[in-house]
Amino acid sequence: MNGEDLPLREALLTALRRLDALGMNRGSTGNLSHRTGSGIDAAMWITPTGMGADDIGADDFVRLGAEGESRGRWRPSSEAPFHRAVYAARPDLNAIVHCHSPHATALACLRRGLPAFHYMVAVAGGDSVPCVPYHLFGSEALSQAVAQAMRDRDACLLANHGLVAAGATLERAMKVAVEIESLAGIYLAALAVGEPVLLDALQMAAVIERFRHYGQPARREEDGRKAR
Ligand SMILES: [Zn+2]
């Protein structure tokens, strides 16, 4: 693999360590990937199976081709199939973060997604974050369910399992994951007292519209460049 995509693999390692530091990942349960190449060279770099942030270096990521052929010294994450399915369904997404973060996972164990209880729910691109039905990890059924849920969202919860978040850049995918975990914690706290009041479709549409134009102009330009 030599120096191929080394900055990208280093960025994935930094992100994985950050998930641990934030208490969003533990051991080898989480996995991250980044798309690379295009056309017949389309592939992704993904975390190796069974290894945590403390066990791996940038050279331990696995390059997985479009047909599932892998390159690297380790086997890819057992959850690679849903990463591949999401990339196939969403050409605009280039990075995926998956973890069993405590609040999002607690909510997923109740088989509840996030409704429009807070305006920041729009961070995932819509007025809710769905929770997909339970399927065995690594299964084709789970891949299809995740790809379906993320057709028009940048995140979803997996029933009795965890969280998936994605973005045009790794930075964006991490931001969505961190925000969804935070929102899940707030939603659980609110549910402990009563039933939160939901924002209506018009209110959420206004937030989604505002998010399209939010941020520093130079920053948006930079994000756009990274996304290309
Ligand atoms: Zn998982």
What can you see in these coordinates?
The chain is built from seven helices and eight strands; from the N terminus they run αββββαβαβαββααα. The chain is of the alpha+beta class and 228 residues long. It has a single domain, classed as L-fuculose-1-phosphate Aldolase (3-Layer(aba) Sandwich). α1 packs parallel to α5, α2 packs parallel to α4 and α3 packs across α5. The model has no long low-confidence stretch (mean pLDDT 92). Bound molecules: zinc ion. The site of zinc ion has 7 residues, from loops.
Characterize the largest beta sheet: strand count, sense, and whether it forms a barrel: 8 strands, mixed
Number of strands: 8
What's the CATH architecture name? Answer: 3-Layer(aba) Sandwich
- State the CATH superfamily name: Class II aldolase/adducin N-terminal domain
Write down the domain tally. Answer: 1
Number of helices: 7
What share of the residues lie within helices?
25-40%
Q: CATH fold name, please?
A: L-fuculose-1-phosphate Aldolase
Radius of gyration equals 17 Å
Indicate the mean pLDDT. 92
For the termini, the CA-CA separation is 24 Å
Hetero groups in this structure are: zinc ion
Sequence of secondary-structure elements: HEEEEHEHEHEEHHH
- What share of residues are in beta strands? 5-15%
Name of the level-1 CATH class? Alpha Beta
* Content-based structural category: alpha+beta
Principal-axis shape equals: globular
Low-confidence spans: none
